[in-house]
Design a protein that fits this description.
Blueprint: H1 4-23, H2 34-46, H3 50-63, H4 69-80, H5 84-97, H6 102-114, H7 118-131, H8 136-148, H9 152-165, H10 170-182, H11 186-199, H12 204-216, H13 220-233, H14 238-250, H15 254-267, H16 272-284, H17 288-301, H18 306-318, H19 322-335, H20 340-353, H21 356-370, E1 384-386, E2 398-400, H22 403-408, E3 432-434, H23 450-457, E4 466-468, H24 476-495, H25 500-512, H26 516-529, H27 534-551, H28 571-587, H29 592-604, H30 608-621, H31 626-638, H32 642-654, H33 659-673
Parallel strand pairs: 1-2
Antiparallel strand pairs: 3-4
Helix pairs in contact: 1-24, 2-3, 2-4, 3-4, 4-5, 4-6, 5-6, 6-7, 7-8, 8-9, 8-10, 9-10, 10-11, 11-12, 12-13, 13-14, 14-15, 15-16, 16-17, 17-18, 18-19, 19-20, 20-21, 24-25, 25-26, 26-27, 27-28, 28-29, 29-30, 30-31, 31-32, 32-33
């Protein structure tokens, strides 16, 4: 029989061996459970912990370098970290080991696109389509690559195929509009724009695209109408206001155009075209000092923009700053010595400063020009000019984006990333207990609970616990710290095996490195040690929920392989989560985040009326709980209570969840259609 001290040492040695085998496989590759490491790595990838996921995939590659999957997933993680060269190399390794997986070509294609290797990307998409000929994302990306290569005929042929495969795929029509415009086929472009709106009236891009087409055809009133609808569906898009301002300007609605530029610059304060054109409009209505502010801003972005320099010179001249005006005129004339208007204005400004000799020199240049000695350059008849236009005689004209910039506003992103834009309206996420939180500059809030505050004040955990539903991925340094913390907490558990806090601390470490199974095991132990410790129930509920979400994960994350080791999600699984949250509420009846999380679970279980009861309770406990208002609003809408739902969403927007406004517009539009 072992003595107590020897027994303790043996237990500690066994635990340390197990941990070394799991987290430090370089010591002994034979100890790696590759399936488990891959599962944790995919977990981390799904929840956007890319640096952490790479470490797990490295372990799998070191243990079994002949497998394709770890290379593919590591490439996917690298792509999301914008290491496109590394992503391409990993996908190539995956393809070498298994050349029959379309997603590997898809991700390598995107990585090549980001390196501007469009020919290589085209080869990848063509190969992938031989394996999966009806994959919409592959046809989508292939057509965009053809456009980059200026192969418009083949791009249109690819888009025709895509539309045959998926006739209600709106993005295909939007891309084909651009191809038609490149081919000067405005009639086909207009047909596709009408079709895109017919298919999806709630997509702001469809209205915006047709609005710009109508503007090109000089149907400015119709263009304004379409752009207004686009704004209604996407109110935080500065470019839409910039474009509608132009449509209004063409109709001589200067006040309306000015208002649009004001809103656009509230949304995007660094918008070059917004400041430049607003400066011109302010100059037209005599608001000279504020016009100078706009041109100062433009020159802060582009110090060598001589159109802006000259316009600022004119405004300085009007406001009595003749010395400043002369400086600006001189800057322009040094670059454009044949710009006669510049000499005309500088001569007048020089006289006002008393520089008669300089004024005489400028007037002599003008006289020679009148005699036909100097070359002449005239302004075009259009009311606008392209941003790249360098004809100084167009200095008074409003700026529009160049064709390439204009089209890129509406061109859909390349498809295939895990974070592809999801147009589904999603509820605000669950709250968790963590050491970290992502900083949100637009929405600053502190989530407080006296229970968590008391726990923090006891200093039984390594760091202060935060309550957040805005989690952040760990850095490489933080990941290393938490692996080290797992070892330290293991030692504490050996010394104090009855401490729930030690198990809870290690559970948080496991959770943060995305090892959910070990985290749950430690939370179970913490609850056994202290059945009244409510944070353990709360964290266990959250981790169980995340495991279920991972089981239902986006299929785009997989290499076209169904993981049979992941059982289907059942109502019983959600009931287990609910029981943990019930216990949290029993132990801490005014912990609002437990009511909120339980409401989210009830909503997932489609028990919307019970969810409303919990959201109501959370709001009763904290009348400024924006997330609860947002989710209660969505729940009411699901139940058909649109008016109450929109009221709640409005309150959520007022409290800082600005995405609520776009949801309101979508449901308001739906109601109006009915």
């Amino acid at each position: 029989m072992l003595l107590q001290g020897e027994n303790t040492k043996m237990i500690k040695r066994i635990i340390n061996i197990l941990i070394a085998g799991l987290f430090f496989p370089m010591v002994s590759l034979a100890q790696i459970n590759t399936d488990r490491v891959m599962t944790i790595g995919r977990n981390a990838l799904y929840f956007e912990d890319y640096v952490l996921s790479i470490q797990y995939f490295n372990q799998a590659i070191n243990a079994k370098p002949y497998l394709a999957e770890p290379y593919f997933y590591r490439g996917l993680a690298k792509m999301n970290l914008e290491d496109f060269q590394g992503a391409e190399a990993d996908c190539s390794e995956a393809i070498e080991r298994n050349p029959f997986v379309p997603n590997a070509y898809q991700i390598r294609g995107i990585s090549r696109i980001r390196q501007e290797n469009f020919k290589g990307a085209i080869l990848d998409y063509e190969k992938a389509l031989t394996l999966d000929p009806e994959n919409v994302s592959l046809w989508h990306n292939l057509s965009l690559c053809r456009m980059q290569e200026k192969d418009y005929v083949q791009a249109k042929a690819d888009l025709d195929t895509l539309i045959r495969i998926s006739p209600r795929y709106t993005e295909a029509y939007l891309i084909r509009i651009e191809v038609s415009l490149k081919q000067k086929d405005t009639l086909q472009a207009m047909i596709d724009a009408d079709k895109a709106i017919e298919i999806d009236r709630y997509n702001a891009d469809t209205w915006a695209m047709r609005g710009m087409l109508l503007m090109q055809r000089k149907k400015f009133q119709d263009s304004e109408s379409d752009l207004t609808e686009a704004i209604r569906l996407s109110i935080r898009n500065a470019g839409l206001f910039i474009n509608r301002a132009l449509a209004r300007y063409y109709q001589n609605n200067l006040r309306g155009a000015m208002a649009d530029y004001d809103v656009a610059l509230d949304i995007d304060r660094n918008n070059f075209i917004g400041h430049y054109n607003r400066g011109l409009l302010r100059a037209q209505v005599g608001d000279d000092n504020r016009a100078i502010e706009d041109f100062d801003f433009v020159l802060g972005i582009e110090p060598n923009n001589l159109m802006a320099v000259f316009n600022r010179g004119l405004l300085r001249d009007k406001t009595g700053d003749y010395k400043g005006a002369v400086e600006d005129y001189t800057t322009v004339l040094n670059e454009y010595p044949n710009f006669m208007v510049g000499y005309q204005y500088r001569a007048k400004a020089r006289r006002k400063t008393g520089n008669l000799k300089g004024a005489d020199e400028d007037e002599l240049v003008l006289l020679k020009d009148q005699l036909g000695v100097a070359s002449k350059q005239t302004a075009s008849a259009d009311k606008t000019r392209k941003k790249s236009d360098k004809n100084m005689n167009n200095y008074r004209k409003m700026v529009v984006a160049d064709n390439e910039e204009e089209s890129s506003k509406y061109k859909t992103d390349y498809r295939g990333r895990v974070q592809d834009k999801n147009l589904t309206i999603l509820p605000q996420p669950m709250f968790v207990l963590s050491y970290y939180e992502r900083v949100d500059e637009l929405r600053r809030q502190v989530n407080f609970s006296k229970y968590i505050d008391e726990l923090n004040n006891r200093h039984v955990l390594p760091s202060r616990i935060l309550i957040t539903n805005n989690e952040v991925s760990l850095s490489e340094v933080q990941i290393k710290q938490h692996f080290e913390s797992i070892d330290k907490n293991t030692e504490r558990i050996v010394r104090q095996p009855d401490s729930a806090f030690n198990y809870y601390a290690r559970a948080l470490d496991f959770y943060l490195v995305q090892d959910f199974d070990n985290a749950l095991a430690d939370l179970d132990s913490a609850i056994v040690k202290d059945s009244t410790f409510s944070p353990a129930y709360f964290s266990r509920a959250v981790i169980q929920y995340k495991q279920l979400e991972y089981r239902k994960r986006d299929k785009g994350l997989e290499m076209n392989v169904v993981d049979e080791k992941l059982p289907a999600v059942r109502a019983l699984d959600y009931a287990m989560i609910r029981r943990d949250l019930d216990e949290v509420i029993r132990l801490t009846p005014d912990f609002i985040y437990a009511y909120y999380n339980r409401a989210n679970i009830l909503a997932v279980m489609k028990d919307y009326r019970a969810a409303l009861v919990d959201y109501n309770k959370a709001i009763e406990l904290d009348p400024r709980f924006a997330d609860a208002y947002y989710n209660r609003g969505l729940t009411n809408i699901f139940l058909g209570n649109n008016q109450q739902g929109i009221h709640d969403l409005s309150k959520a927007g007022e409290l800082g969840i600005f995405s609520a406004y776009s949801v309101i517009k979508r449901f308001t539009a739906s109601k109006e259609d009915k």
